[in-house]
Amino acid sequence: MVRGSFLRSGSAGGGTSIRWAPTPSSCRFWISLLPIIGFASYGRSSDHPPVFPVKGQVFYDGRPAAGAVVVLYPVDGDVAKTSRPRGRADGKGDFDLATYRAGDGAQAGTYVVTVEWKRAEDNPEQGADLLPPIYGDPKTSPLRVTVTPISNAPLVLRLTAKR
């Protein structure tokens, strides 16, 4: 049982107000419910399709492409209406794809992979791409990947200037 009491107090204008004053035991009761409420909401389906972890590495002429941006475009479906998982390579060329949250992965399906690598001082949306243009356009990129609901092997992208 939740316990507490109503307190009546006077105000400067002559009126009275009533407020709830919980006892320490009622506070402990409500605090004890917080983990239960949290666990009940954990893992609930959201408004979006499930995603699966995808990790990878990107290299250009054998060297890690630190800062390169990898984007997946669905082969099937309306590209304008679907999410495009993306990731940015770290100093070793490693990246984790994200669709809704950092590192959550990509939906199951087949994708065209694009990679753009701009100089660090350039704005990520502008500036010269250090890679051949073929890799940055989903219409011309030769890179493909299939994401499955089961364990996905790391995606290793070995790009060359000879494309």
In terms of structural class, how would the helical and strand content be classed?
A: mainly beta
Global morphology: elongated
Mean pLDDT: 81
Low-confidence stretches: 37-44
| Alpha carbon gap, first and last residue | 73 Å
Number of strands: 10
Order of helices and strands: EEHEEEEEEEE
Beta-strand proportion:
25-35%
Helix residue percentage: 10-25%
Helix tally? Answer: 1
Alpha-carbon Rg, integer: 26 Å
Largest sheet: 4 strands, mixed
Structure description:
The chain is mainly beta. 11% of the residues lie in helices and 31% in strands. β3 and β4 (63-64) form a beta hairpin. The longest helix is centred in the N-terminal third of the chain and has 18 residues, at 24-41. The radius of gyration is 26 Å and the shape is elongated. The relative contact order is 0.18. The model is unreliable at 37-44 (pLDDT under 50).
Q: What's the helix and strand layout?
A:
Elements: E1 4-10, E2 16-22, H1 24-41, E3 55-60, E4 63-64, E5 69-74, E6 86-88, E7 94-96, E8 109-116, E9 144-147, E10 155-159
Parallel strand pairs: 3-10
Antiparallel strand pairs: 1-2, 3-4, 3-7, 5-6, 5-8, 8-9
Question: What is this structure, in a nutshell?
Answer:
The chain has 163 residues and is mainly beta.
